[in-house]
Design brief:
heterodimer, A: 363 residues, 39% helix, 11% strand, globular, B: 397 residues, alpha/beta, 8-stranded parallel beta sheet, 16 helices
Chain lengths: 363, 397
């Protein structure tokens, strides 16, 4: 096997998590600490619910040490950071994704601040200089989210903004979300949108068209629809035209869906572009300039050849695809899995330079 | 009139998706039972300015009974139907046989067409009992106004509401014996679940009993009831609406497979109408890639999802994304060659994006043409080629 052993790698998605809520609560203002601990030995759960759909065999890779694997430094070291060619890894939200659908939006603002401060203290200021992270924002209150981006977005190891779950129940291109994009663009930070942003019961939007999925496998096959809708909405609302340097990474649903979306949008744009006259480029041209797609999950189970062919038949994908490992979820992909699946000539871009140009690195 | 068949020989062309329409609301209302007519007719019969509505109205015939305001396609920015398809007497496109004969059957050389209402969104009416009445009336109107026309090129669909599946089953049994009705048309998952969900089983059971395939047509979820038509929030433009409009059928397809509908009804065939053609390889791949998960959660899934698809599912060609080049399309369809046994030609006449055969001839390999223009439809509808050839020879010109 011609494993790309010397190709430097950026893993644009490694999930991290607090080992227990207590660690996070210490970063909250005292009145919220008191609220969460109304009596000795009792603690209100900050995230009582999370995603509606779960893998029946478990959402995470098994962790020998016990505890949430995304909070386990040793496991992360062994499974991810020990890869010698790994140059940078971006710590991404796990449970923090649901901050933006917490119903108490004032508490959510404090929780987002606590998560960001905790992340900087515990992960970014630690010994491993390869670690970077994303700003968690309470998007159900866009002005507060923008303030949070301005507060911690200048930290040199915060290289992007994690949009989180859909807090307002409208497409992410909607003008209501604009303050977030203004602040992100000001700080030169890209926005990361995950496919599970419609997966919480607190979200007004559905994770799929035509009804609510009944099983995890249906949800899993269809969750690209959430990303397809948000990208369509970004085009339709002229969000790329208004925010001229704003960039996106969409992750969590692989990359096989993006070609058909571009063909469909270009087709509709040819027919109906005059309805959205503020859109100054074809949708696929906007995608090419502004959108990157995460590789995880590869889903090789239906055949690497079929998958490679689908990826290869996507126009410009070699400039859009970014390696996302997705550790510690059960379907995480090692860099070599991705390297062996894509055409050899794409490796440098997909494993490294696409992410290198997307995020706001300190160097 | 000279038939403009473009090919060398008498080639059959079957059109799996044509939208037909009533001329005046009263044509349909006469079939509504007396008690329901009293409840609705005064409003429904109010003048609408033009017989049967206009080409701009997105499906509203005028009266709130037949097409209430919640059911028109939102976000109209131009004609929904082509102005040149307005009928000879100024009526709505698709409402007059003579006009359709000239513009569709003759001009496009269509050997047989399946009329699928325009677009049957009445099945998503919010009052389920009203929906039962309206769908019954539409089926009766269809029988008397269209299926009695002595032109054997005409076939049509049974329209059923979907919020009361048992009632839908009864309607399929009531009218499904008419040999000119060749499919059961579903447009709207009124109960907030995709069509594989067991709650819809009575519809599939009745269709199997009567021996009819199912057609699922785009657009019903625009009625915005329990099922959103797309993930992630409602659309802000028609561009967005139509781009997202294929999300429900992707869900219906996954749902039919995951919930074992094809295991329960091994002879069932399903046609997916008006969703385009570039989304299939992606979804087929991803379903197969999740086969292990499906079997764990839904033990009745016994074959690769793409196998169920190949055995049971057909897809219409319109709207054929014109932005994909023929080379890109053939690359995309590598490893999915079986799509040549699945795609069925359709025009979508008389809608604004009506397609004739040209785009298909240009984009798909020539070796696929016979399959796409008629052979796949013959298999879907269970028709014999010889019968259509005889009929084509006998067509009055």
């Amino acid at each position: 096997m011609s494993a790309p052993s010397r190709q430097a790698v950026i893993d644009a998605e490694v999930h991290h998590q607090w080992p227990s809520q207590r660690e996070l609560v210490d970063y909250l203002p005292s009145e919220w600490q008191a609220y969460l601990r109304p009596m000795d030995g009792y603690e209100v759960q900050l995230f009582p619910i999370s995603a509606t759909y779960s893998n029946p065999s478990g959402d995470y890779v098994s962790n020998a040490e016990g505890g949430p694997p995304s909070s386990d430094w040793n496991a992360l070291e062994r499974r991810v950071l020990s890869q010698r060619q790994l140059e940078r890894a971006i710590l991404s939200p796990d449970e923090a994704t649901w901050t933006s659908v917490m119903l108490n939006k004032r508490l959510a603002c404090h929780v987002a601040q606590a998560i960001n401060d905790w992340c900087i203290d515990r992960w970014l200021n630690g010994g491993d200089k390869r670690l970077y992270s994303l700003v968690t924002v309470p998007n159900q209150w866009p002005e507060a989210a923008a303030a949070e981006i301005r507060r911690v977005g200048r930290h040199p190891r915060m290289v992007g903004v994690a949009m989180g779950a859909n807090g307002l129940g409208v497409g992410f291109g909607h003008p209501a979300y604009q303050p977030i994009y203004e602040a992100a663009m000001e700080s030169d930070l890209p926005i990361v949108i995950r496919a599970d942003c419609e997966a919480s019961p607190n979200t007004y939007t559905h994770p799929s068209g035509g009804g609510i999925p009944a099983t995890y496998s249906e949800y899993r096959v269809l969750k690209f629809q959430s990303l397809a809708s948000h990208l369509t909405n970004f085009i339709s609302e002229g969000t790329f035209d208004r925010f001229t340097t704003l960039k996106l990474l969409v992750t969590g649903a692989g990359a096989t869906w993006i070609s058909t979306l571009m063909w469909k949008l270009d087709y509709k744009f040819e027919q109906q572009g005059r309805e959205i006259a503020w859109v100054r480029k074809s949708p696929s041209a906007h995608f090419h300039d502004r959108v990157k797609v995460g590789s995880n999950p590869l889903n090789l189970q239906a055949g690497a050849d079929r998958l490679r062919n689908l990826l290869e038949s996507t126009p410009h994908l070699e400039d859009m695809l970014c390696y996302c490992g997705g550790y510690p979820y059960w379907d995480f992909d090692r860099a070599e899995d991705v390297a062996m699946t894509i055409p050899e000539s794409w490796r440098e871009k997909v494993l490294y330079s696409n992410a290198r140009s997307l995020f706001r690195w300190p160097d | 009139m000279v038939r403009s068949v473009t090919s060398k020989q008498q080639r059959l062309v079957i059109d799996a998706d044509v939208h037909h329409q009533w001329k005046a609301d009263s044509d349909v209302l006469q079939y509504v039972s007396r008690e329901w007519r009293d409840a609705f007719s005064s409003a429904a019969l109010a003048p609408t300015g033009q017989a049967g509505g206009t080409i701009f109205d997105g499906g509203r015939g005028g009266g709130p009974l037949l097409s209430p305001s919640t059911m028109h396609q939102p976000l109209l920015t131009g004609p929904v139907r082509r102005p040149e398809f307005v009928t000879g007497d100024g009526g709505r496109p698709g409402s007059d046989y003579e006009t359709m004969r000239e513009q569709l059957f003759e001009a496009y050389g269509i050997s047989r067409a399946v009329l699928t209402f325009d677009t049957g969104m009445q099945q998503g009416l919010k009052n389920p009992w009203q929906a039962v009445q309206v769908c019954r009336a539409l089926n009766d109107w269809n029988r008397d106004y269209w299926l009695s026309i002595p032109d054997d090129r005409i076939r049509s669909a049974v329209l059923v509401q979907t919020s009361l599946p048992e009632e839908a089953g009864a309607e399929i049994r009531r009218v499904g014996g008419n040999p000119k009705l060749v499919e059961v048309l579903l447009t709207c998952s009124s109960l907030g679940r995709a069509f594989g969900h067991p709650i819809y089983d009575p519809i599939f059971k009745a269709a199997a009993e009567v021996g009819l395939p199912i057609a699922i047509h785009t657009g019903g979820e625009f009625t915005g009831d329990n099922a959103h038509y797309q993930a992630g929030g409602v659309a802000g433009s028609r561009f967005e609406l139509e781009a997202g409009g294929l999300q429900p059928v992707q869900h219906h397809l996954v749902s039919l497979i995951v919930h074992g509908v094809f295991e329960r009804y091994p002879d069932l065939k399903v046609l997916l109408a008006e969703y385009g053609v570039t989304w299939l390889p992606h979804l087929l791949y991803q379903m197969d890639a999740n086969y292990d998960l499906m079997r764990r959660e839904s033990p009745w899934v016994k074959k690769w999802p793409s196998e169920y698809f190949r055995e049971h599912v057909f897809v219409t060609t319109q709207p054929f994304e014109s932005t994909i080049t023929s080379r890109q399309l053939s690359n995309l369809y590598t490893n999915f060659e079986y799509l040549q046994d699945v795609l069925c030609f359709s025009t979508d006449y008389p809608h604004w994006d009506t397609e004739d055969a040209t785009i298909i001839r240009q984009r798909l390999p020539e070796s696929w043409h016979d399959n796409v223009f008629y052979r796949n439809a013959l298999r879907f509808y269970g028709w014999k080629e010889s019968e259509l050839l005889e009929q084509a020879a006998a067509v009055p010109s």
